[in-house]
Every structure is written in C-alpha cells, then in structure tokens.
Design goal:
Largest sheet: 3 strands, antiparallel
Structural class: mainly beta
Number of helices: 2
Strand content: 15-25%
Order of helices and strands: EHEEEEEEEHEE
Helix content: under 10%
Strand order of the largest sheet: 5-6-10
Shape: flat
Radius of gyration: 25 Å
Number of strands: 10
Number of domains: 2
C-alpha cells in the first residue's frame, strides 16, 4: 500500500545567497517540510480487530511504553501480526548469562524453527570451550590447540556463550 507524501517549500531568509551548491542544498533542506497521510495506527497492548489489520501496530505496555522498536504489520501469509527481527541471520554475539534463557531472547521460544516460531538465538557449539582468535595462518593451523588450562597460576578466564541469530524472520504479536 502506498501513501502520498506532501512536500512544502518555505521561504529562504531575506538576503540568503549561497556561495556553494552545498550551502544551497543545506538551505533548501532547512525550509522543506513533509507529511505522510496515514489512515490509522493501532496503539495498545491487545491485538487489533480484523477491520484494523490494514494499519500498522505499535504495541505498548500497561504504562504506555513501546514494547519494541518498530511496528508490526498483519501478514495474511502467516495470519499473524509480524515484525522483521532487526538483526540478520548468522550474526554472532557474546552472551554473558544463563544458557537456559537463550531460546527466549527477543521473544523467541523453544519450538520448531519456522519464519514465525522457534528461537531467535542459538549457542554456536563450535566455540564451546574454545578461545576465539582472529582468523589467519596461526588460527587456521591450530584450530584445536588448547591455550588455556585450568589450575593455579594460570590466567583467570571468564566463560561466555557465543550465540548466533537463527533463520527465524519475524517477531509475533501478541
């Protein structure tokens, strides 16, 4: 669905005389205003009715605070309100926390992985009990070498999980 955008141009200040094309562009940008005609937006913490599905949904908590950055659209393919996850599939990050909650991060769940169900994150098992090193000749040759051992006199090590974004595409509401 496309919506018309209305652009209005104000007036330059008396005596405005730019000396470069960039000054002119900057001056023009300062006097432009625009508006977008939107027929409606759904706000709230409950699922909108069927007749409201053509408008975006901005869910709020009980205090009126936004629940997510962005908005949900109703998908007729999935018969659900969905929003693309902001991180791309395959992104790897560090997680310093309880491994049992990783499936629930970002609204994920322990379920079969589809476009709208399952976890958003998973533990990268290739990094379990490994110390990551930037890729290069040494890292490629010594992929299974142990560089840290337990015991007195060895450096202190903090264990973290490397987690990766799964192929799940959409958040669901509710």
């Amino acid at each position: 669905m496309s919506e018309p955008v209305t652009i209005a141009v104000g007036e330059f200040a008396q005596g405005f005389c730019p000396s470069t094309p960039q000054e002119y562009a900057d001056g023009l940008a300062e006097i432009l205003t625009g508006s977008l005609a939107i027929t409606g937006v759904n706000f709230g913490s409950t699922e909108p009715t069927a007749d409201q599905r053509s408008s975006p949904l901005l869910p709020k908590d009980a205090n009126g605070n936004p629940l997510y950055p962005g908005y949900f659209s109703y998908s007729t393919t999935y018969a659900k309100w969905v929003m693309l996850h902001p991180d791309f599939a395959g992104k790897v990050v560090l997680w310093e926390g309880d491994a049992t909650v990783i499936n629930a991060l970002d609204g994920g769940e322990t379920a079969a992985l589809t476009a709208t169900t399952g976890p958003f994150w998973e533990i990268v098992t290739a990094f379990v009990d490994k110390v990551p090193v930037g890729a290069g000749a040494v890292a490629a040759i010594n992929v299974n070498a142990s560089v840290v051992t337990a015991g007195a006199g060895n450096p202190q090590v903090r264990g973290v999980h490397f987690i990766r974004r799964t192929a799940r595409l959409y958040r669901r509401f509710p």
